[in-house]
Each structure stands twice: as C-alpha cells, then as structure tokens.
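To whoever picks this up:

The parser on our side crashed when reading a file containing two proteins. I've narrowed it down to the boundary between the first structure block and the second sequence. Both blocks are reproduced below exactly, byte for byte. First block:
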Amino acid sequence: MLKKTIKSISLFAGFVFVNQALAANSDKYPEFSWDTMPLYMHVWKHTSYTKDELNYLAQFPLITIEKAQGKKEGTIQAGTLKAAREIKQINPNSKILYYKNIIIDWHSGASQALASIPNGYLQAANGDYPVVNEQSKAKFFDISKAEVQQWWLKDAKAMVSDAAIDGLFIDANIKVLIGYYFAKSKKLGEPKADALIAGYHELLGKINEQFGQDNIILGNIIRARFANAGLEYMEYFDGSYFEGFEHNVGGISKPDYLVKGIEAGQKAAQAGKILAFTAGLGKALKQDSSGIGLDEARQKVDSIQHIQKRLDYLTAIFLVMAEKYSYFYPHDGFGVRTNNKGEQLNRAWMRTFPLFKNRLGAPKGPAKRTGYIFTREFEYCSVYLNVETGEARLTWK
C-alpha cells in the first residue's frame, strides 16, 4: 500500500511521538553509548579488507558498506557479503547496511538482470541514455515501472536475507524528489520526472512493507533544501545519513541553511530516528559531480595535523543534534585507496581522533539556541557553536 508523505512539520511532530517508543523497543537498532563519541562508518574498498582493517571496522556499531566494495574481486554483492561476514565474526553486534541506490545503476551484480528489462533504463526523447557523469557513465533505471521496482526489491531481499546484513542504505533520494534534476538537468521533461516521483513513493512503500519490520532502512534524506528539510519523507526511514549539509541553495543564507538543517536533525533524533552524521574534513569544492550541488564535494585532506578546527566544528554540529542512536563520522572520502607508492589516500582511515577517546556522558538536555549560536551541556563536555562565524568550542571536563 502506498504511504502518504507527511506535508508539514506540525504533522511530523505528531508522527514522531508515536515512533519514538517504537525505536526505543526495537532490537534492530544499533548498540549505543554516551561513554565516548558514538561513531558511524561508511566505507568501500575495491578488494577485501586486511585483518587489521577488519578489527578496526568491527569497533563501529553501525556500518554502511558502499557501492564499490570488492569490485576488483567479483560483484559488489559478493564483496559486501564477504566483508560483512568477516566483520560479524569479530563483532556480531555491529549493524551492517547494504548500499542500494534508488535510481542509479552503479554496475553491480544485478545490472545484467536490469539490462534485460525492456526500457528499464531512463531514455531521453532523442534516444540518448542520460548518465550521472561522463566519468562513471552510470545510467539511471526507471522506477516508475513495476518490473524495475520488482528487480530492485529482489536484489535487496537477496542481501538482507543474509544474516550478516542488517538493513539497507538508500541513496540518491534527492535526485528523484527535487524533480528538476531529471526534468531539466537530464532533459527527460516534467511528465517523466513526476512519474519517477510517483514511482519513488510506490517503491519506498514496498521497501517498508517487505523489509522494515526486521531491517534498518537508512536514507540519505535530511537536506535543508527540501521544504521541511527532508522530515516530510522520514516516515519511510529509520534514520538519515547526511550529505551536502553546508551547501546552501535557493537564496537562503548559509547560516540560515545550517540552522534549518540542524533543527531538522534535532527533530528526527528526538523522535528516536538514527542519525548518521557524516561530513568531509577537506575544503569545499565549488562544483560537485551532479553539477547542481546535490552531492558532497570536498578536497582531500593534505595533512591530518591541520584539521582540528574543522573537526571541532563538525563535532559541535553533531553534538547539538545528537540523541540516542546518533552516530558521527568526519571523513576524508569513503574509499580505502593507496597511491602508486602504497600510501593511503584517505587520511581519516584507520584513525581514531583523540577527542573521540574523551569521556562524553549523556546530554543534560536539548541544545539551546540564540540566533545563530547553539550551546549544549553533556556530562563531561560543554558545546558552543556559532554557525554564522564558523566558530566552535568543545570544553572537556
């Protein structure tokens, strides 16, 4: 049955009251503790992980294994299952999510079956198949078609049926829901863009019906660029990953955009939803892979010694929003890759920042806001955040 999306913050407020109790009693949720910073992991590697890497990964209560896992050794599905099973052998309590894009075919083991569906890929009026970008050449599948929806669900079912997979990470929701990405940027026209939005709601309803009871459904969905910052779609998800959190669009100032995003995160977290707050440590790039500011776009970190100010700022944003089932990952990209000298290109990989070892303790209450300034008290940390000046202070006790 197709679910109705929630159209306003006021309606969402009633929804969250109901779901907070459900989240608290659900054993499908990850382990959580306020003892130190609660952390999330989002990662891919073209090959298998080493023993040391697996031991590192097994420390995280919530892990998403990304879309390129194991591609040099076989299919993404096989690579994901191999990594998940090995992590579970070390820590059976880690919750591991299988990455599935809602509309992009990232050349996985399911691509051959998709190619056999008549008109399964989106195609422009001139016969061209739009692609994500010229580097990847990844095409889009048509979720307005029932056969494509069943193809998507079949692959998801095969993966979550494995004991090592605890749910789904659903990406690219925004590319469908803002409409003009497909209508104009990909030149498919408004009628097709509208059909994709309708197909999206049908598919998310089926995902919830088939998998929601026993599996975590995490979406890349909270974005201040939505009318209600993505809260209007949260009924489909157990929580949200964060991307493009600081990239203001639509004429709104960056401080106001950040306030809107933070307050949406607070509402979702207070409802018992999972927050997987990720943000890049490097400098922001002017243009991302979508060309219209839909994807995270940051430079690689030159030196881990020069990121403390940025790290404190991101940590403060997270702590202002965080409740039970909130997790944090400041990153330098998600890939585990080396250069031709064997040097790791991901500066944050296999690294536990010193502040993550500090005692944190439970919050003493929600954050307080005065204009663009947020403050919050934890048992062992005082948080100050000014999103207008970009200033943050963490005072550890």
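<<boundary where parser fails>>
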Amino acid sequence: MTVSYWMLILALAIAAFTIRVVGLFAGDAIKSSRFSWMLDELPGLIVVSLVASSLAGQPAETWVAAGVALAVAYFTNHVILTMFVGVTAFGLLIWLGV
C-alpha cells in the first residue's frame, strides 16, 4: 500500500475516534440537562423510525402484516412471537394474493 492509503486510514481512524469522544461528552452534557428524558426514549424512537422508513412505499400486504405484528407486540410484549406472527402474516397474505 502506498502512503496515501495509510494517510486515509489514519484520517478515518482519527475521525471515528473523534466522533465517539464527542458523542460521549455530548451524552454526558445531555444527561445533566433538562433534556435528559430524551435519552430514555431514544432507543424506542430509533426503532420506530427504522420501521416507519422501511414501510414507506411498501405494498398493502406489508402494512397489514406490520399492523398484525404491532397488535401482537402490544398484547403479548414478546419479541420472538411478534416476529413470528408478523412474518407468518406477511407470508400468508402473499401466498393468498390478498
């Protein structure tokens, strides 16, 4: 490898380290501020945003299966059962051609 590759690797390593250190300090600053409640809700918000962006532009079968999975999650609070029922509902909807 040439020197330019090593310089790129070094620059990316420094950038990755800097991002982590800044995140550590920002997290500590938020924990001690009046916005600390946001950190408690952040994991759930991230999951919801990932699911919502995955559903955007999907056919109706996907939305119905997601609704079924949401209902199972609400009533059972069981992750594995929710995934199983959601995938099964999607498969059945596709198989039936609904």
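After patching the parser it read the second block fine. The CA atoms of residues 27 and 33 lie 10 Å apart. The two ends are 56 Å apart (CA to CA).
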